[in-house]
Each structure stands twice: as structure tokens, then as C-alpha cells.
Write the C-alpha cells for this entry.
Amino acid sequence: MKKPLNRWVYAIVGVIVLVFAGMVYAWTVLSAPIAAMYPEWTKAQLSLTFTLVMFCFCIGGFLGGVLSKRVKPWIILLLSAVLFILGFFIASRATSLIVLYIGFGVLAGFGSGFAYNAVMTFVGKWFPDRQGLISGILLMGFGIGAFIIGKVYTALTPSDGGPAWRTSFLILGIITAVIVAAAMFFIYAPPVDWQAPVSKKATAKKAVQSYEEINTITMFKRSSFWLFFIWATFLSAAGLMVVSQGTPMAMESMQITAANATAAQMGSIATIVGLISIFNGVGRIIFGALFDKIGRFWTMLLGGIVFIVAMLLVIWALKGHSQVILVIAYIASGMGYGCVTPTNSAFASKFYGMKNYPVNLPIINMNLLIASFGSTIAGAVYDSTGSYVTVIILVIALLVVGTILSFFIRPPKHPQGLETETVAEETPDAQAAAQE
């Protein structure tokens, strides 16, 4: 076994990998030049590519978790690198939708899922004392990857109907494959006898530990799993609704139409909407750290409240046509939405343990398959009502129900290995468990 490096080196490598693995979420930006070259391909047909990406990402994460129990992480990363290069190469040669679906939707989607699982599983093992924080940091990279690479792609790839996007896709595939493959030398499980460094603050309290170690079948039998899964689905759907309608809502708030919008105005709107992605990344770190500090209950409650307040501000911006309020609303929206993914990860490890974490986390993340319909529902609601206020009211309803559900999630009655002295668990959860 090689001598371990400073564990933050593994975290940095993990972030870099997830920045590139997360670019599949930039499909709306990546597809613009493709749509210009093939105007006969409808928006619905091109949108199906992203649906396939979401599906294959979730399934790839699950398969990666299953493989992690049987093979070394470098094999999973190598497989991811091969899928990325093949996927982007095939997509770059696409002259039909089916080829595009196979290349970007299926192969790149699976590649992203494999890389995601390998990083979250094995980098997370170096931070048993900071599961929330490391989840937030890693997922920040995954979240901003689409924003960063989307910006670079847009700057270098004209949407004039030309073939430049084919070269861009090929280059992206090569760079991503190289980075993921290089990560094979840095991402691996810590030695059996390795222990996390003990900080000065840790002397005053014990590290946060899992309540117990249970397998996926047992997890399915827990009400805590289903309540949390619904919470994650509702908040993710709300976030995707806001993200998908971010640009047209900003245009309505600023009283701009596609017909009279100037390039400068559209640039300003793109920057404002980009704040959702930026602060989504920031929110992932903040709420991940909060999970370690104040526990599951207060983290979920605070995330729901921030998101609800953000939606009320969006209504204010739409009614009052205030750009300042809109900016604040989008920043808060990104923060609230950023609560979901690090909480998913920290919840999986806290409630169900690290032994089966590689499989349990992808199962929880499958809430995205349901939540991905949020953007479609938001569009349908707007088409039928002609009002974004109605869309936001629907979002608020999802957030309120999800937040209420968080009150009913309880830790196991007889936890195994629970550190009762951990400050982070001095919450209604721990108190209820003690009373039971």
C-alpha cells in the first residue's frame, strides 16, 4: 500500500474529476449548436437526450456501487474514462438522433455515473469525521462543472449551424477521459489501520458516526428512507423547475421579450440566471458543513425555509419587476437547492452506514429520475396558465410538503454505534430516539 498523502489532496482530485463528470448537466448549452445544424430535430427530441443522461447517470452510479464491492476503484474510473471518450466521439459524429442518444445520452451518462460513485465513495472514506462537509465540497464541483464548461464551450463554439461543435465534443471527451484516468492514481480507499487526523476541536467531542450498518433491502423497509426520498424528490423537482424556467422568468421580471431583447440585456439575464448554479455550488458546501455541525433535522429544515423564502422573493420580483429582488431571489434559490445533494450523501452514510454506502447512495439519488419531470411540469403549467406566479406557487407547495415531511424522519430506536456525545446530533431526532 502506497503511503497516504494529505487527505485534502484526494478531495481536490475528486473535485476536479466531478467538475468534468458534471458537464453532462450542461446539455441545454451543449445542444444549442446541434439544434442550429439540425433544425428538423425538435426541442422535445433533443430534450430526450438529457432524459437519457439522467437515467443512465443514476443507473451508472448504482452499477458503480455494486462494482465497488468487487473491484478496485481504478477499474471503475478506467471504465468511466473509456465510456466518456467513446460517448463524446460517437456524439461528435452524430448525423441522426439515435447516434446522439447512444453517444451522449447513454455512454457519457453511464461514464458520469461511474465517476460520481467512485469519487463520492472512496474520497468520502478519507473523511469519516466530516461526511457532510466533504460531500458538499465534492458536489460543489459536480454542480459548477456544467456552469464552467458551459461558459467555455459557448465562448469557443459558435451556434451558426456549422460543424464546430463536433470538434468541441471530441476535445471535451479527450480532456475528460484523460482527467478521469489520471485520477486512478489518487482515488482509492484508505488503509485499514488509517485514522483521520484529530483536530483540537475534536478533543471536546467525538466524531460523528453512523447509527448502524444496514444493507439496501433493510433500508427499503425503513420509513426514514421513504420520507427522506420524498423530501429529496420534492426539493429536487422544485430546483429543476426554477432552473428550467430561470431565463424566461427573468425576462418577464425585467419586462423583456425575445423580440425586443438586446444582446446586452440577454447577457445580463444569462449572468443573473447563472447565479443559481454558482450559489447552488456554494450552498452544497455550506449545507454539507451544517449537517456535521447541527445535524440532519436542522439542516433539512433550514434548507426548506431558505428555498421557500427564495420563491416568495421570485413572486415579488415578478410582480414588482425588480431586478435587485430577482438577483437576491436567484442567489437564495441556488442556496436552497444546494441543500439537497450533500444532505443525500450525508444522510445515506449517517443513517445506513459506510459499508453499503456505494449502493445505498445511488438508490437515494434515483429521486432525480422522478424529479427530472419537474421542468416538463413547470412548462406545462405555464402553457396552461400563462403565469410564472402559478409555477412558483406549485414550487412552494412542493417545498412546504417536503419540509413538513422532514419532521417525521427519525433515527433507529436502538442504534448501533451511535455516539451520544456528538454535538451535531443534539436535535429533535436524538431526543425522540432517546424517548423511544
